[in-house]
Amino acid sequence: MRASISLPGCVRRLLRCCVLISIGTAAAMQGAIARDTDTQYTDKRARIDYTLHCSGCHGMDGLGKPAAGIPVFTDQVGHFLRMPEGRAFLMQVPGLLGARLPDDRAAAVTTWMVRAFAGPSLPPDFVPYTAEEAKRYRESRPADVIGKRNALYRQLLEHGYAIQ
User: Fold this and answer.
1) Helix, strand or coil for residue 143?
2) Fewest CB within 10 angstroms: 34, 60, 122, 161, which?
């Protein structure tokens, strides 16, 4: 048998008001989310993708684990953008390829990562990655990723850009 609780009228009205306020707040929040620009949404999604697919090795701070062969992004990843093959390489790394993200999200997470970690190494003329680039670069991945990375390091060093 279910017990019935009789609430005074003022308590019932207060509960109804709380429910209406909750519904109104939820609707307002959805409106705020809908008003986010595409860029804001893309940046949020890209940060989530970085957290899920990249931060396990590179860390949320982009410092990697150099002793274990995981490169540092912070203040140097932008140097790769100074060479076309370096720009392509950032989309050909095993973690990004293994994440199996659609091309638009692969482009977005790489753009987000570059902007978040390049610091002073970011070229002033940086152009965000596109889904078309992501498709093209990921289809032509190097057979020896570490060898390719080391070759790019040497090229950057020859041009005066030291990479850890």
Assistant:
1) coil
2) 34
DSSP H stretches of helix in the chain: 9-35, 38-53, 55-58, 84-89, 94-99, 103-117, 131-139, 145-158
Backbone angles phi, psi at 160, to 5 degrees: 90, 10
The predicted model scores a pTM of: 0.74
pLDDT digits over 43-96, tens only? 899 999 999 988 888 999 999 999 998 889 999 999 999 999 999 999 999 888
In this predicted model, what pLDDT tens digit does every residue of 5-44 receive, in sequence order?
A: 665 665 556 556 544 454 444 444 444 444 445 667 788 9
- Given a contact cutoff of 8 angstroms between Cβ atoms, the answer to whether 80 and 86 are in contact is yes
